[in-house]
Amino acid sequence: MTTTEGPADADLRRHRRPEPAFARAIAAALGDARTVLEVGHGSTRYEPVGREVTAIDAPAGDALRARLPYEDDAFDAAVTAFTLDQWDDLDSGLAEVRRVTSGPIALLTFDPDRIEDHWLTEVAPEAMAAEARRWPSLTRIADALGHDTVTSTTLPIPFTCVDGFAEAYYARPERLLDAAARRATGVWDSVDEITARRSVAALRTALESGDWDRAHGALRVRPTYDGSVVLVVATPRLDTPT
User: What CATH number does residue 146 fall under?
Assistant: First the structure.
């Protein structure tokens, strides 16, 4: 059977590609793990290179009431990238991932406490507030991994970031006037069309008037931006109860 790629799929494939800087950070977090469980498929798939990868869907719905079909400690490590907003029950999902993983769990995610710090909030406050509500807080994630040692590291977003979430265009605001690029970010999915159009019009006006450059023009020459992208890494404690 032949499947037809829809506009949304084409937008994601074109605008959401794995950012090498993030992929390197994930690889470092996984250490020398050979077998890796990849959980969920976000807008961009950060499949670890050079590893034996088993991919599963993000835990949702009925899947939460069943154990993953793997033995305890079946994998050396686990990874998920930009999918935690899709998990129906973070505690149950992470508990199962930990059960089948003997080593580090790397979670590439967004810190909701930092999302609205981005300049896009000035022109799209409703969309950015909705975006912040989508993602679990870092405290919530750490609590769900309570028996592990959990570290959170903000990953600088490169000027040339090829994974086109909204903050990736921190220095290239004109890109968000492109409807396809906007659709790929997912930011406007939670607001109605009129609100989205109003936000785009406000951004266009700010760029044409020079207001954006007067307020944020220095970002155009910044090589990186510390936004809301965070790599959370959980490693088992030696005294973790069995």
Answer: 3.40.50.150
Instruction: Give the residue from 163, 33, 162 showing the smallest Cα distance to 106.
Output: 33
Instruction: Report if residue 242 sits inside a domain.
Output: no
End-to-end CA distance of the chain: 47
β-pairing verdict for 105-110 and 229-236: antiparallel
Dihedral class, residue 155 (left if φ above 0, else alpha if ψ from -120 to 50, else beta): beta
Euclidean distance between CA atoms 219 and 169, whole angstroms: 10
Q: Does residue 151 register a pLDDT over 80? A: yes
Beta bridge partners of 77: 36
Number of domains, the chain: 1
**The pair of three-digit structure tokens given for residue 68, joined into one six-digit string:** 């993953």
SS (H, E, C) 13-52: HHHECCCHHHHHHHHHHHCCCCEEEEECCCCCCCCCCCCE
Question: How far is the C-alpha of 7 from the C-alpha of 2, rounded, in Å?
Answer: 16
Query: Is 173 inside any structural domain?
Result: yes
What integer pLDDT is reported at residue 146 of this predicted model? 87
| Band of residue 31 on the pLDDT scale cut at 50, 70, 90 | very high
> Once rounded to an integer, what is the mean pLDDT over residues 75-93?
93
Spatial distance between the Cα atoms of 209 and 75, rounded to a whole number of angstroms: 55
Chain Cα centroid distance, residue 233: 14
pLDDT tens track for 201-211? 999 999 999 99
